[in-house]
Specification:
The mean pLDDT is 77. The chain is built from no helices and four strands. A hairpin with a 2-residue loop joins strand 3 and strand 4. It has a domain at 44-92. It starts with 43 loop residues before the first strand and ends in a 16-residue tail after the last strand. A four-stranded antiparallel sheet has the order 1-2-3-4, with no helix packed on it. It is mostly beta strands.
């Protein structure tokens, strides 16, 4: 984790950039949009999305002026982590797919 320029990491500010959304209970194979998320400046965004039973990894890149997203869902079982879902559009940059969570 990086501190913002000139700002030390403290217990008071360590989670200031976190966004928590309560999606409630969802059955397998069901999806629900819970609003929009402004991407702002730049041409790259990486998100790690945590659920109680799995972790969703989201990579967003601007390609030819259009935002594209790639996503994977991982589930931890003991000491093993396995990918249970992956969706990558064909035009998404292949070198941008890095599912490591600790970036």
């Amino acid at each position: 984790m990086e501190a913002k320029k000139g700002q030390a990491i403290t217990l008071q500010n360590v989670f200031t950039d976190d966004i928590n959304v309560d999606v409630g209970s969802m059955a397998a194979g069901v999806a629900a949009m819970k609003g929009t998320f402004p991407l702002g400046e730049g041409d790259r965004h990486d998100y790690n999305i945590f659920f109680s039973a799995s972790t969703q990894l989201l990579r967003v890149r601007k390609v030819d002026g259009k935002w594209l997203q790639a996503t994977a869902v991982q589930r931890s079982e003991g000491n093993e982590t396995r990918k249970i879902f992956e969706q990558i559009p064909p035009e998404f940059p292949a070198d941008a797919i890095d599912w490591k969570q600790n970036k």
